[in-house]
Amino acid sequence: MNLKEIQDLLKLVNKLELKEFKMKNGEFEVAIKTKNFNKESGINLASVMPRQAQPVPAPAAVPAPAPTPPAKEEAKAEENPNANLLEVKSPIVGTFYRSASPEKGPYKKIGDRIEKGEVVCIVEAMKLFNEIESEVSGTIVQVVAEDASPVEYDQVLFMVDPN
Q1: Could you give the CA distance from residue 119 to residue 133 in angstroms, rounded to a whole number?
Q2: DSSP structure string for 33-82
Q3: What is the number of structural domains in the chain?
Q4: What pTM did the predictor assign?
Q5: pLDDT score, position 64
Q6: Residues of the domain holding 155
């Protein structure tokens, strides 16, 4: 596993509010225990521990998370103001450019309204300049990627408010 895959795994475990997660892939093994793990004994541990291959019991089936009461959802929205924002992601690996050329202004700026299918930037890959179209409609509230910087597949480029 690479660092990005581990980070994605940690986000998923956190989103699902799991207590514990274990996985083995060849020589690589990861065990994650969250703050929800074994609260009765006072253990409050969040750790990721790659180790040498050892037998790992198969993880128990994880039940679907219970629906969150409305009060908790409102508290989460206050904690994370980006919760209702949509993401425009890079469909390819390459170099991100906000404008068609250095002399021209950016396709879109913060505060601009975009529609689904509208070109918002360019990603250069192998000397080809690929126009990136938005998959969402809304108002750009944040440009996440830095102009003329490398981007990965599925990396967030823009944050969009759908309202």
Answers
A1: 4
A2: E-TTTTGGGT----EE---S----PPPPPPPPPPPPPHHHHHHHHHH-TT
A3: 2
A4: 0.50
A5: 56
A6: 86-161
